[in-house]
């Protein structure tokens, strides 16, 4: 009895011990790692780039990520997609860090606006930013030209007259106000930001840090995460301290639709799609019922038409391309010994260069690519002319004209009428001399569906006597 009472007194101590053990084990379980979403922006900024960044930020918001890092290396791009990206960054509930990387990268033109709009701006060593002057679709600098003072020195103290066209001043003033607003929002150097627009000013990473244009210089992503750990940013009117030490970085990949949009919005791809579409429809027209060329042609033309809606296009160049194609087609129907074809090739080359000669970084077209296409078309044109000349020398290939003079083979021995084999078919034939089986005969004329024939040797002798 004594032993049982002692054991009963020890029992309450066991649950208490188990509770303490569970608490100690719970304390040793590591907390979930901080999530950071990483995006990559390279080359020209277009519609596909904007959709990629917008979807990436939305993905980070859904997973309640601590931070979005945008690795950037861009020469610039289109204004409308850039503004969409800036609006998404400004309205993001997740802080956005734009990081110009790797070494030698740049954030020019539209990239400068995006960098200044971000909650944190960072650059790798030997990178640069700036040159944010707006560019017109014609490829010309939209900065209003200075107006010389022609009225003497007496008006030097007066305010200078507005220079440039009304549209140029409007575009410039809008860009200046926009970039100053972005810089002031995050307490950055708005005066330099204005110079990036009006004077196309640029800065290296070190200069940008010294002039309060960016917050950090980091050699790589790990150093960047260490530098911004504890840095305070303002989100939705509230100040938030970032916790990025030991963060888990998750790269965000574009989906298939964004990747497809990025491919077809390449000017060179647009040109190829348009040509494939046109020639596919032409082949379908020449060979009704082929189906596949027509379907492929329609799809390619629709893709090209969509891409042209999101690209800066000079429509005079587009008209020259259509003229060039029409001239090359005209060469096939009305051979002019290359005059139409050469003119078509020239129009195609100049049109291709003009159509995408917008001056907007990342949306030009390679001269080598255009010349290569022109050479291919020239070779096809030469082949086509040679083929047409060969067809002219060949003569008729169907009807009575193609049968008369043809060589047939007797199917049996016969005298008078019998059967011969000509061009894969059996024909009734009539001969004035006996014919042996497998003997070669030549067709001299046709009487309805009956061939008038004679042996090849006799025909050769008769032809020789006529020539002599």
Structure, described:
With 468 residues, the protein is of the alpha/beta class. It has four domains: 201 residues, 2-enoyl-CoA Hydratase, Chain A, domain 1 (Alpha-Beta Complex), CATH 3.90.226; 47 residues; 82 residues; 68 residues, Beta Barrel (OB fold (Dihydrolipoamide Acetyltransferase, E2P)). 49% of the residues lie in helices and 17% in strands. It has 17 helices and 16 strands. Strands 8-5-3-2-1-11 form a six-stranded parallel beta sheet, with helices on both faces. The protein has a five-stranded mixed beta barrel with strand order 12-13-14-16-15. The longest helix has 28 residues. The chain is elongated and about 110 Å long. The termini are far apart. About 7% of the residues have low confidence.
Keywords:
468 residues, alpha/beta, 16 strands, 2-enoyl-CoA Hydratase, Chain A, domain 1
The separation of the N and C termini measures 148 Å
Tally of individual helices = 17
CATH class of the largest domain: Alpha Beta
Helix proportion:
40-55%
Radius of gyration: 39 Å
CATH superfamily of the largest domain: 2-enoyl-CoA Hydratase, Chain A, domain 1
Overall form: elongated
Read across the widest sheet, the strand sequence of neighbours is 8-5-3-2-1-11
What fraction of residues sit in β-strands? 15-25%
Query: Mind describing the biggest β-sheet?
Result: 6 strands, parallel
């Amino acid at each position: 009895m004594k032993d049982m009472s002692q054991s009963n007194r020890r029992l309450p101590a066991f649950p208490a011990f188990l509770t303490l053990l569970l608490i100690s084990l719970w304390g040793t379980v590591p907390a979930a790692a901080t999530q950071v979403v990483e995006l990559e922006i390279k080359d020209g900024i277009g519609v596909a780039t904007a959709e990629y960044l917008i979807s990436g930020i939305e993905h980070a918001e859904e997973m309640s990520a601590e931070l979005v890092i945008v690795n950037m290396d861009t020469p610039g791009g289109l204004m409308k997609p850039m503004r969409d990206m800036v609006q998404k960054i400004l309205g993001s509930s997740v802080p956005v860090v734009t990081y110009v990387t790797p070494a030698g990268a740049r954030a020019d033109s539209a990239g400068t606006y995006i960098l200044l709009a971000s909650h944190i701006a960072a650059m790798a060593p030997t990178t640069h930013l700036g040159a944010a002057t707006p560019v017109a679709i014609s490829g010309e600098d939209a900065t209003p030209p200075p107006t010389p003072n022609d009225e003497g020195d007496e008006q030097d103290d007066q305010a200078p007259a507005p220079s440039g066209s009304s549209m140029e001043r409007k575009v410039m003033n809008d860009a200046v106000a926009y970039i100053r607003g972005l810089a002031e929002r995050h307490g950055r150097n708005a005066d330099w930001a204005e110079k990036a627009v009006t004077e196309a000013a640029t800065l290296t990473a070190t200069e940008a840090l010294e002039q309060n244009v960016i917050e950090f210089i980091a050699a790589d992503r790990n150093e960047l995460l260490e530098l911004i750990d504890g840095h305070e940013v303002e989100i939705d009117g509230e100040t938030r301290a970032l916790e990025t030490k030991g963060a888990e970085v998750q790269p965000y990949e574009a989906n298939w639709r964004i990747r497809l949009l990025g491919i077809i919005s390449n000017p060179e791809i647009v040109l190829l799609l348009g040509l494939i579409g046109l020639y596919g429809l032409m082949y379908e027209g020449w060979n009704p019922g082929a189906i596949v060329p027509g379907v492929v042609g329609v799809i390619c033309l629709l893709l090209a038409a969509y891409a042209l809606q999101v690209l800066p296009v000079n429509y005079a160049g587009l008209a020259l391309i259509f003229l060039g194609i029409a001239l090359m087609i005209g060469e096939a129907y009305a051979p002019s010994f290359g005059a139409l074809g050469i003119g078509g090739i020239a129009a195609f080359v100049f049109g291709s260069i003009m159509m995408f000669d917008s001056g907007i970084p990342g949306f030009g077209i390679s001269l080598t690519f255009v010349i290569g296409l022109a050479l291919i078309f020239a070779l096809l044109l030469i082949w086509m002319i040679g083929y047409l000349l060969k067809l002219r020398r060949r003569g008729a290939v169907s009807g009575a004209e193609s049968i008369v003079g043809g060589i047939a083979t007797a199917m049996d021995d016969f005298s008078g009428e019998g059967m011969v084999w000509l061009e894969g078919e059996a024909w009734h034939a009539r001969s004035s001399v006996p014919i042996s089986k497998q003997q070669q005969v030549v067709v001299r004329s046709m009487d309805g569906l009956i061939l008038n024939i004679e042996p090849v040797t006799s025909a050769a002798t008769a032809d020789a006597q006529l020539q002599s």
